[in-house]
Amino acid sequence: MSKCFLTLLCLVALPSFGYDFDLSGWRIEEATRFHATEARQGVAVDDRYLYVIGNNTIGKYDKHSFEPLARWSGADAGPIIHFNAGVVFEDQLLLAHSNYPDVPMTGSVEIYDPETLEPIDSQSFGVYFGLVTWVLPFEDGYLVCFAHYANRAAEPNRDPTWTSLVHFDRQWRRIGGWVFPKALFAHIGGAYTLSGGAFGPESLLYVSGHDAPELHLLRFPIRVRRWSGSVAFPCLPKARPLRGILSSRIAFTASASATGK
Predict the structure, then answer these.
(1) pTM, rounded to two decimals
(2) Are the beta carbons of 165 and 143 closer than 8 angstroms?
(3) DSSP structural state of residue 15
(4) Which of 42, 78, 88, 57 is nearest to 194 (CA)?
(5) Residues 119-150: tens digit of each pLDDT
(6) Is residue 48 one of the residues assigned to a domain?
(7) What is the 3-state secondary structure (H, E, C) of 193-232?
C-alpha cells in the first residue's frame, strides 16, 4: 500500500539576495509533513486551507491542524483525467487539467468552489499548444503552462523544449507568450517537463520539473520572448520529487512512494 504525504518546505531568504542569482543566503527547511491521501500532483493554498491535488481527486485540509475537511473524487472513466497544479484566486480554485498521456494533447483549466469542492466552470483549450500543467493569475489575466514530453505522451517532432507559457486575458483570449531556455530542459533532462510554477521572493518565477527535488529560478521577461537566465536551487537532500508548487516563502511538495505520473 503506497503512502502519500505532503511536505511543507520553508523557503528562507536573506535581504542580500539580488538578481545576480547569488544563492549564498538562501536555504530550504522542512517545516512539517503530514499524510494526505490525494498527494500525487500538487497543492493550492489560501488563508485557511490546503487543497491537495491528485490525478482526479481534491482533498481539503485545515492549514494549521491538517485535519481533512472535504474530498472530491472524479469518476475513473472521466471526464477528469489528469489534474496537475492548482491555485486559489478570487474565491475560485483553478486546476490545470489535461488528457495525459493521450495524444493528441488536450488541456483545460477546471474551476472549483474552494468552499464545497464542487465544479463551477471549465475553460477548455481543446487541441492547443500542449498539455496544461499549471496556471497562475498574472496582471490582467492568467499565465498557463502548456507542456510537451518525450515519452508515451509525446507528439510527433516535439520534445520538452516546446513547452511554453501563454498569457491570457480574463476572457481567456491569448495576448502573449514565451518559451523557456533550452538550457533549463538540458539540466532537467529525461522525458518530462515543467510540472509546477509560481512567483515568489524577488519577483522571480520558481518552476519545478517532474523528478528532481529542486526549484529553478527564472527572471520573467518583460520585453523579450526568452528568459534572461535561470539557476537550479536544490531542496532537501532526501526530498521527494517536486511537482506542483506554490511558492510565496513556502513551497508545498506533493509526494508519494508510488510514482504518480
Answers:
(1) 0.83
(2) yes
(3) T
(4) 42
(5) 999 999 999 999 999 999 998 899 999 999 99
(6) yes
(7) CCCEEEECHHHCEEEECCCCCEEEEECCCCCCCCCCCEEE
